[in-house]
Design brief:
single chain, alpha+beta, three-stranded antiparallel beta sheet
């Protein structure tokens, strides 16, 4: 029997491609007469990143049957649709019309987000005989929570906005070329107004009568009369200036409060005091307690005895290491086993490993004598699941149990076996989906 190669296939059921294929793996669906192929995974032969129809009437246009054609199509020459009926027409791609476009109907709906018009003038209300009457109410309507409109009203002969008008920075309202209103003031051509209130006046010259106190003024045109009218006459209403009082006014609030709380007796303590600032500073910063000072009271150690501890860096833990030593330390060290790196290494093995090693016989140990097998090679035989990336060659070998005897067999022998369909019964079948 010759070798047979079968594609993955579907004889009945649903039309369409398999849910997954390997890269370059084919699959045929007899339901929609389409051959599919797994496409793209970087050439590694893994799972395909997409599945594409490559053959069959389900993949390409049938000249006579009914079909749905999708995707981008490029046509050259003339496309004649004069005998075709198009009940509705939707274009999901860019459309360029070289000639004029005439749209007839009741409503024209444009759902694009941006409309670009090369013509710098847009005409509205263009009828056969336009008048202000036909133009009435024309303009723009922006849909929102409520309509926002900018329309021409014939009754007022004006463009009328339903909303506020906001000018950007540095722009003004002008009439007949003259600025009448800016962000900060009225234009110079505005000579009369009916203002009933103003905001904060930050500059200008006042030429009217004196403003009374009741209206925020002083009711006077000179400083002396102004102070009298406001009730702040110097010497009678407010304290006259004094340099000593001015100096005291610079002290901190808590200093002033503390000074005001001093009694006469407390102030007199400083009278005739001879203590200096340096003498007071001697006590400033002392943190010793009475108990700490009393520790030194009665100490009998000499300076020489205390100096023995000068420079000592040993910790309490380090000093406690020799606590209780009753014999010469060097003698005790001389009686210990000399340090040996091999013995130290063996001492780290687990107790079970040490016992197993001690139980080996000379014959068992000799089995390893001359062995060249590596730990990695042994682990491969012992069920290792780690794979090694290797480029296989025909001369490479594999281990086969030949009727009870383990032997190495070249890959070429495996190829010869599989090619002989009569002996191997080898059938490459992609299965179904």
């Amino acid at each position: 029997m010759a070798n047979i190669l079968r594609f993955k296939r579907r004889a009945s059921g649903a039309a369409g491609a398999p849910s997954s294929l390997m890269e370059t793996e084919p699959a045929y669906n007899a339901v929609d007469d389409t051959l599919y192929l797994g496409i793209g995974s970087g050439g590694a032969g893994g799972s395909a990143s997409s599945i594409k129809a490559i053959a069959g009437s389900g993949a390409f246009v049938d000249k006579t049957g009914n079909q749905t054609v999708s995707g981008n199509k490029t046509f050259t020459g003339t496309v004649d649709l004069s005998s075709a009926t198009i009940p509705s027409f939707s274009i999901d791609q860019n459309l360029t019309i070289v000639g004029n476009l005439t749209v007839q109907g009741t409503t024209t709906t444009i759902s694009s987000s941006t409309i670009d018009v090369a013509d710098k003038n847009i005409e509205l209300g263009k009828v056969s005989s336009p008048t202000d009457t036909t133009a009435n109410g024309g303009g723009l309507t922006l849909k929102g929570t409520q309509d926002h409109t900018f329309n021409w009203l014939n009754a007022t002969d004006s463009w009328t906005s339903s909303e506020h008008l906001e000018l950007v920075a540095s722009k003004n309202f002008r009439i007949d070329g003259a600025v009448v209103l800016s962000k900060t003031g009225l234009g110079s051509t505005v000579l009369a107004s009916s203002l009933t209130s103003v905001g904060t006046i930050t500059s200008g010259v006042w030429s009217g009568t004196d403003i009374g106190v009741a209206h925020g003024g002083t009711g006077a045109s000179n400083a002396s009369d102004a102070r009298t009218n406001l009730g702040v006459a110097i010497g009678s209403d407010v304290q006259a200036y004094d340099s000593e009082l001015d100096e005291l006014a610079t002290m901190a609030a808590n200093t002033a409060a503390a000074l005001a709380d001093l009694s006469q007796a407390e102030v007199q303590i400083l009278d005739d005091a001879t203590v200096t600032t340096a003498e007071l500073n001697i006590l400033d910063g002392v943190t010793s307690t009475t108990a700490e000072i009393n520790i030194l009271d009665g100490v009998t150690a000499s300076t020489a005895e205390i100096n023995k501890l000068d420079g000592l860096t040993a910790t309490t833990t380090e000093l406690n290491y020799i606590d209780g030593v009753t014999s010469n330390l060097q003698t005790q060290l001389d009686n210990k086993q000399p340090l040996d790196s091999e013995l130290t290494e063996l001492a780290t093995m687990a107790s079970g490993a040490a016992s197993a090693l001690a139980d080996l016989t000379g014959t068992e140990v000799a089995i390893l004598d001359g062995a060249t097998v590596t730990t990695t090679e042994l682990n491969i035989v012992d069920g290792s699941t780690s794979a090694t990336s290797t480029t296989l060659a025909a001369a490479d070998r594999m281990v086969v149990n030949d009727n009870g005897t383990m032997v190495q067999v070249a890959f070429t022998d495996l190829v010869t076996f599989l090619e002989n369909g009569t002996v191997s019964g080898f059938d490459i079948d992609g299965g179904t989906y």
